[in-house]
Amino acid sequence: MQHPIHTTTALLSLSAALFLSSCATSVVQTKQSQASLSPAQAVEALKQGNDRFVSGHGKHRDLQAQARKTAAGQYPFAAVLGCIDSRASNEIIFDQGIGDIFSARVAGNVLNDDLLGSLEYAAAKAGAKAIVVVGHTGCGAVGGACANVKLGHVTGLVDKIKPSVRKVLADPHAAHQGPAFENRVAEENVKYVTQLIRQRSTILRDLERQGKLQITAGIYHLDTGKVEFFDRN
Ligand SMILES: [Zn+2]
Questions:
Q1: Ligand 1 centroid to 68 CA: how many Å?
Q2: What's the CA-to-centroid distance between 88 and ligand 1, angstroms?
Q3: Distance between CA atoms of 198 and 59, rounded to whole angstroms?
Q4: What does pTM read for this prediction?
Q5: 72: domain range?
Q6: Distance between CA 207 and CA 120 in Å, rounded?
């Protein structure tokens, strides 16, 4: 009897697809899962997510099921303030699904009152345990600040990065031009923004002092996918 190879292949593909869809996680954050995490564990969860992303073993998610499960309420465990860069999506680089993290994005991951309000809402009202400011290598906004770019509303935006530019320029051991210079400014900028958050928000500063929140920073490396965390800043 002739073996129906094409039928067998089709059946195998179908069973593989069914197997994969049955493996897709529809688990979402709940009030309980959020409450059970410490701030340090929330940061660790982001680190583990980035490890999964770097290794190419991200979670297989049923996003439609996650959307349905979170429709009535959200309990994200962290808030990430990142850049708008098309290569640095917070959910993707930390391998997070629907309802897992608040995602605030602005060119150069700078801070303003509305973003600060968003972070206060995330932590004080919605229960997020960690705030992570994530910059990245090869950032256009940081490059613009280093080059003193003047362009419409970009001028005011890059001005917010200038304190970090001046800090790196004042360091005689730092590169003062090129990618090494700009990446160092990006690093100083995320540390500066975490300090600004603490200085300008009594709500977030108090939550951190009470051990209910961790505010930290990191740099996403475009070439490796790795987020380098600066836990002490
Ligand atoms: Zn950027």
A1: 32
A2: 8
A3: 33
A4: 0.90
A5: 28-230
A6: 10
